[in-house]
Amino acid sequence: MSRWIIAIGAALASLAATPAMADVIDGHWCFPDGRRMSIEGPAIVTPDGTATRGDYARHYFTYVAPPTDRDAGQTISMVLVNEETVQLRIGSAPVEVWHRCGPPTS
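RE: above sequence
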């Protein structure tokens, strides 16, 4: 009987040691008006289609909009709310709520 308890305990311990899928801001994000962006580490493709870099953390991303973007010079900051939702702020404008979506198709 004690061998079964040890075996079950070992099995449960090995399951607990398995890393869980963590939520991260990396991925593709969409806004209801059709804008899209993609984040991969410190790299971003902005909603205007410009590839640039920003300050990246697993649950946070910020960048200054490039000169070719409609919000040129503005600081764009994003906070991951949950695995499917990001709150984005352009400068001091009201927060926009973006949702995770699939990669763009051509």
